[in-house]
Amino acid sequence: MMSFIIADLSVIPEAVKPVYLTSRLGMQFPILATFFALTFLPFYQKIHDVVLCISLLLVCYANYWLIVQCWKIAEFSFSYEGTLLYGLFCMFIMRLSFKFSIIFVLFTILGFALIIFSYPVYAGFGMVNLGFVSLGLIISLIGVKQIENAFGRFQQLNEKLVRLNQIDQLTGLYNRGALEQQFDLMLSVSNRIGTSISVFMIDLDNFKDFNDGHGHLRGDEVIQTQAEILRQVFNRETDTVARYGGEEFIVISLGINAQASEALAAEVLREWVRRKIKHGKGQGQDFVSCSIGLISTQVDKETQKKHLIDTADKALYAAKDKGRARFINADNLDIL
Ligand SMILES: Nc1nc2c(ncn2[C@@H]2O[C@H](COP(=O)(O)OP(=O)(O)OP(=O)(O)O)[C@@H](O)[C@H]2O)c(=O)[nH]1
């Protein structure tokens, strides 16, 4: 704005300099300074469109006032191009939303049309200039809409990518990467609120034999069934169920003690028994089952994710050793 003022003052007639300075320094500058100050408000993002639209319209109308005054005082045709510049700045640099851009463009064109129809400021070029300003602003409006659409699509794609990156395609559960992040979060939350955490490692029994005997596709269905059972049993908001890899799953649950954790593990085993899915292959059992190792502990600053997983894993392998289709609580590992 300062460079505009210096350039304008060297070309405009002496008689209009006072109104010029009033418009620029007494109106436009304070409006923009107030707008700038408002951007520091903590809730500014919520009012961005309203504040920007009103501020820039006020600046535009201060410019219109200047055009009219220059004409009235010295019949001097003050340039109108600043109107377009303010529009472009508002829509593309300050990113006014499409909805508010429509309001901005309508009022900007309306104000300029009022000048053209009320004063012969631009002589025979009045309508041409009005057309130029209107078309320029409408084309900018279309540009804003296209940018908004492109951003919307980009955001959707981004969300889809994040989902794809976190979700296991076969089961729809969290994958291992997402589990690691979720686990860290759950550990710090349970440390902060002083609650317990339970970790369950779940593994299908003799699944290699099942795959070899029934085929990989049936194997995939069994993996999906395991996911379904886990989702059904661990259905609280504070439960995280993930596919840890292959036919191995992990569940993290907050705020349940050892007894409740064992009850949930038993429920998973019962659900397999209820479903009676035939196995009968290799050295396998009659029906498909799984083994579970679990640990339930109070969380403190020292609690380590790796230690919890390793301990649940040890309990899982103890359950396998003991004959499968059972759960073992790591608390009992010493006495086994
Ligand atoms: N169908 C299918 N099979 C899988 C998938 N991921 C891993 N597997 C199979 O799961 C089987 C795991 O076998 P092992 O690790 O030997 O364990 P197991 O036969 O279940 O024996 P235990 O765990 O000791 O009861 C392998 O045959 C893998 O090929 C998958 O996404 N789909």
UniProtKB/TrEMBL annotation:
Q: Which SUPFAM superfamilies match?
A: Nucleotide cyclase
Q: Name one GO molecular function term.
A: diguanylate cyclase activity
Q: According to its UniProt record, which cofactors does this protein need? A: Mg(2+)
Q: What is its EC number?
A: 2.7.7.65
The GGDEF domain is annotated at 195-332
Segments spanning the bilayer are: 25-43, 50-67, 73-93, 100-119, 125-144
Pfam families found in the cross-reference section: GGDEF
The keyword Transmembrane belongs to this UniProt entry's keyword annotation: yes
This protein is called diguanylate cyclase
